[in-house]
User: What shape does this take?
Amino acid sequence: MEFMILIHGDESSPRLAPGDPGFDEFMGSWFAYNQMLMDGGHWVSGANLAPTSSATTLRHTPGQAPEIVDGPFAETKEQFGGFYLISAENLDEAIELAKKLPVNSGSLEIRPVAFRPDAG
Amino acid sequence: MLALLTRRFGDLDAADDAVQDALVTALTAWQSGIPQSPAAWLYTVARNTLIDQVRRDRASRRRLYEAAPELTAHHTRDHDTDEEGDLIMDASSLGDERLRLLLLCCHPALDRDTQVALTLRLAGGLTAAEVAAAYLLPEATLTQRVVRAKRKIREAGMPLTIPANLDERVGVLLRVLYLVFNEGYLSRGADHVTRVDLMAEAIRLTRQVVDELPANAEAEGLLALELYHHARSSTRVDGLGELVLLEHQDRTGWNLDEITEANARLHSAMTRMAPGPYQVQAIIAGHHANARTAANTDWAAIAELYAQLGRMAPNPVVELNRAVAIAMADGPLAGLAVLDRLTGLDDYHLLHATRGELLARAGRPAAASFERARELTSNEGERRHLARRAAETAARGR
Assistant: This one.
């Protein structure tokens, strides 16, 4: 099965920038996680998104041209920041893989993929 | 031969038993002549024994699956088609299947109410009407909850396997069983005759877990705890449906067989040297259940056990219970001192009811505490009791 792990977190919480002490270790933990997914045959895809300050939303109303809005589709305490698309035996394995993500705050939503046209 | 049979049937113990049985059979059968190939003879006899056993298991398992047709649809299909194939595939024991089903019903990706409903409906085999009645829900609500859960189980890819993090998952399962038990224990009132016995159901399912996971001390601790409570549940309510406090219960009405079994279960759990909250609660329940009279209760020991429980899982209600035990051991003023340091329970009626009782015992004005407790509960029986206590203590105060 395939699962998407949607990563939600508070963008306003302080984050490390290149050159900060600990930054290399922080990035290293993400690279190691990606490598672990690849080595285990779990990797399908994944991306880290630019912050919601860069988001643009198209709002559709039936019968009208879509309205272009500055900002994310919803103002929430935690924002959608990135995702992994993984391959796992079942939900239990997907949960175990999600637990290993190097995050210590926010929420990870795990959703099974119902259909993916480009799946092999 | 043992390895061959084990590989084929996947169960070393059963294969070993079958080989031993075959050898015993050979002792008599071979008196009239040793077969040409003794090993093949033994293998055939042992294999036939195992096949019989698997067939019997399969019949029980089919009944189990009938309780959960949608969850296990693919298994049921296997049974009906490939005879020889499923004999080999299905060699795991029935108890193991039951445990897997229980663990799936209590999967942490399901919410608590759903875990309870699935456990009773699928693993416990109660009807939707029975589960709905036990929780005072419309049957349609309960049915809907189960249907939605089955859909999530299928769509989310929740497996019917023994999980890698078994201890953690068993912890969730035990919590669900304890909740079911408590629901039965607390709701037992005048209408209990018409409602299914959730306590008995929880005990039955806990027993299955203990049978399947004999090394898990907390599972057996929970079984002991449930048995202690069940042993005295019939004396908790009087003929009018009013609650009877522990100290006033008729101890001759307690079920000695259950208390004896609980004592043995608790002892067995504790020999495993893996303490946990259920075992500590069982020890406390055991102190009460084994005290011949209320006055014989070892309250100092109970106070210490509540302190221990509080260290394992900090909880203001545990601290409230500790205050009661200390009051019983060292007098109401000592108990009140603990209550005064307690925070986080200001809206909990039993805090105020307890404070009222301790104030009354210390000869101090208590009516306001009883009155506050009465305002905070909606249970009619408790409201009557608290109003009576408020009136009594107000009268005495004057």
